[in-house]
Amino acid sequence: MKDVELRHLRCLVAVAEERSFSRAAMRLGTTQPSVSQLLKRLEDVLGHRLVERDRTSVALIPLGEAVLPIMRQALASVDLAMEETRRCLRGEVGRLRIGVATLALYGKAPSLIRRFRAMYPEVEVTMTVIRGNDRIRLLLEGEIDIAFVAAAPSHPTLTQIPLSEEVLCAVLPDSHRLARAEAIGLADLADNDWIMPPAGMPLHNDIVRECHRAGFEPRITAESDDFSTAFGLVLAGTGIALAGESFRDFTGPHLVLRPIRDLPLRLRHVLLHRQSQMSPTTLAFIATLAPCPG
């Protein structure tokens, strides 16, 4: 049966349903001689006649009637497989593996993921919380498809899609001497202990650089890439921290966020993805970002 093609099966179905070579040819978009040749080829491969022909009509013989449902089922299965393949290529089904850095969970990531789930309900979405340099490694090794991160380092084979940015504020206990100041200078924080993002993160390096510009070396007593952990450490008297303006609602009654008037740093939320070998679901997700400002 290796010489049988879909066109042979479609020819038999068309002839059976139209009961005419000419009408079958019109339905298939070909010529009457071509229909005759296709049907004869099918019969030759099977080694049996399937239709009875005369000058005025054509009809299936009993064997043709017996194989017709099988042919229809085979064609329906192929059509279904092709449609499912097209849906996969459009990113409507499949799997999307998302990495989310803790910092990004407080940005636009949750709402963007919810929107994608609503638009593509048949895509299996898996989530992984990523930390530090794992975000780069997991993307490069193909273990995740996209990553929501804040303060992402650049990489030659990864693309960054900006999502939003926000100013950084000082996180202080409400008993701090500057807790009631409307705005403070970075140098005003020189005599404090600091809770910083982990060493090696771009944000860590940027904060240290700005402290140097303000004339002091920050005394780092703890590191965390989780703002909620940093807030707890501030409450425990471990030191002060920096956080984006959007974290104001998470500070609780005993912490305050105060703007720093001379700190140009911004917390940038971005989506990372590989520049090549992008899955259809990745492309579909990126397409949903088009209406998203910033």
From TrEMBL:
<dbReference type="InterPro" id="IPR036388">
    <property type="entry name" value="WH-like_DNA-bd_sf"/>
</dbReference>
<keyword id="KW-0804">Transcription</keyword>
<feature type="domain" description="HTH lysR-type">
    <location>
        <begin position="4"/>
        <end position="61"/>
    </location>
</feature>
<dbReference type="InterPro" id="IPR000847">
    <property type="entry name" value="LysR_HTH_N"/>
</dbReference>
<dbReference type="GO" id="GO:0003677">
    <property type="term" value="F:DNA binding"/>
</dbReference>
<comment type="similarity">
    <text>Belongs to the LysR transcriptional regulatory family.</text>
</comment>
<dbReference type="Pfam" id="PF03466">
    <property type="entry name" value="LysR_substrate"/>
</dbReference>
<protein>
    <submittedName>
        <fullName>LysR family transcriptional regulator</fullName>
    </submittedName>
</protein>
<dbReference type="GO" id="GO:0032993">
    <property type="term" value="C:protein-DNA complex"/>
</dbReference>
<keyword id="KW-0238">DNA-binding</keyword>
<keyword id="KW-0805">Transcription regulation</keyword>
<dbReference type="Pfam" id="PF00126">
    <property type="entry name" value="HTH_1"/>
</dbReference>
<dbReference type="InterPro" id="IPR005119">
    <property type="entry name" value="LysR_subst-bd"/>
</dbReference>
<dbReference type="InterPro" id="IPR036390">
    <property type="entry name" value="WH_DNA-bd_sf"/>
</dbReference>
<dbReference type="GO" id="GO:0003700">
    <property type="term" value="F:DNA-binding transcription factor activity"/>
</dbReference>
